[in-house]
Structures are given as structure tokens and as C-alpha cells.
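User: I'm putting together notes for a lab meeting next week and I want to include a structural view of one of the chains we've been expressing. I don't have a solved structure, so I'd like a prediction I can at least talk through. The sequence is below, exactly as it appears in our construct file.
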Amino acid sequence: MKAIIINQYGDKEVLQEKEVDKPVIGDHQILLENHATSINPIDWKVRAGYLKEMLDFEFPIILGWDAAGVIAEKGKNVKGFEVGDRVFARPATTREGTYAEYVAVDEELLAKMPESMSFEEAAAIPLAGLTAWQCLVGFGEIKEGDKVLIHAGSGGVGNFAIQIAKSFGAHVATTASGKNEEFVRSLGADQFINYKEEDFSEVLQGFDLVVDTMGGEVQSNSYKVLKENGKLVSIAEPPKEEEAAKYGVKAEFLWLDPKGEQLSKLAGLYESGQLKPVIGETFELSEQGLKDAHALSETHHAKGKIVIKVK
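Assistant: Thanks for the context. Below is the predicted structure for the 311-residue chain, given as C-alpha cells.
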């Protein structure tokens, strides 16, 4: 099968197109004929070697952690899924990722795609959508009427977080650049802060939850907008305990724990019209396609998700 691999850490030029063996599946896995995948910052962070202490993979590495396609084979113990089913997943974190024509996926990480969902839309959801869900629902225990600040609302995780928070009946404020105001408002944002012109920590107060996608100074200033016993969840860097304690806030770093059952909940929001994946750019599964996609993701200015068409 065709795959895009890396044999060493480095810049986008280390991405190579190769013919490799199809994955061999276990009794509780399916073989997915992959139709689409998408780009996440973790892809190029692994490629560059930033995460090698945490993810100690042997080369060659196939990057990619989103998949949408059709079940080609199933293990003997797989229940609830059949060959031919249209499914999507955030597969386990291994060195055999989703920049490939076939992917092995554990059954508990799978969800069925709604009839009306395209493979490109499905591929845009798993990693970013589940991250947003776990920040808001798992850690944040979001409920109707909560005031939530979502940083970088036009980004991959941010745009899902706005839509999920609105589906729970929350009041949502978000930061973005001026050119993205109309976009984040179209997703349901109630309050918009142009981070280039305003200091969000001077404008907002009494919030229940902050979703921090930036880290650094943005994270430190986020404590100021929270009410006492409020919550801050970061996907950028672990919050400092002394800072959280000073403001009387519960703060946590979130590393995604993929779950098919939660992906099914996101599929339900899609069916009810409360969640729509936003696809900014689409590239082909080729060496050049992936190099271009990585370059775009590394600018931090991609709107919505970058999707790769595999089939």
C-alpha cells in the first residue's frame, strides 16, 4: 500500500512516499480502507522530533491520527461492526498512523459515520473534536448557562469547542484575529475578542471555564477571567500549580484519550445540525501534498481543519 513515512526527524522534507505492507490486524481490530485523514499539530511536532521523549517510536514512522473510511476486514472478536461499514476513528498512538491507504484500528476507537457525512468531514473530526469534547464535557463538566472562554476559536480544536459548548447551552467568548470574527460568530460565539487589539483579561470576567490552546502568557492571563473555583484546561502546556492555587482555580493539562463512544456522540451532534466540521484546505495523499499540508499547519493560521484525501 502507499504511505507517507519519515525515516528521520526533521523539517517537512523528511516526508517520503513509499510502498509498505498493509497492517496485520488483531482479533479486536478492523482493517480500515482509508478514504481521508487530516493534519494536526502533533503530526509535525512528532516529525520534528519535539515529542521523541514522550513517543519513543522506531523508524520508519507513518504519521497521522485521524481516519475515515470503509471496513475492509474485521478481527474474529469484533462485534457491532461489519465489513463495508463506513466508520471514522482516532486510532491508537502508534508508529503506524493514518497517512496510508490502510489502517488497523481497535474496535473500541471506532464510530459509525452518519449517512450524510462525507469522508473528508469525518476525517476532520476525531482528534480535534474529541479533544474539544474532553476539555468541555470531561474536565469542564459543562452545563447550560456556563460562561466559557475558548482561545483561538478559528483553529482546529477551537472551532469544535465553540460548537460543542453552544450545544450544551453555554455562553461562549472566543479570541481570534479580526478577519475571523464573522467565522467564529457563525459557529455560535456570543462574544468576540480581537486578540491583536484587545486584552481579553481586561474585557472578560466571572467565567466558569477557559479552554487554553495557546499556553504561555495567554494561559497566565486566563486565570484573571475565571470566577473562584472556576476551571482552566490547557492542551498547550501544563498549568503551573502555584498560579492555579493563587486564583483558587482548578487547572489541568489534557492529553487526549481516544474513545469511540465519545466519537459517536459527536456524530449525533452532526446529525442534529449542532456540529459541522470546517475544512479549510484539502490536499492529496502524496509526498508533495503532505509537505504542503504540514507547511500550512505550521503557520498556525489555518482556518478549520486541513484534510488529506486518500482515495
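A couple of points you could mention at the meeting. The first strand starts at residue 2 and ends at 6. The CA atoms of residues 47 and 293 lie 13 Å apart.

User: Perfect, that's what I needed.
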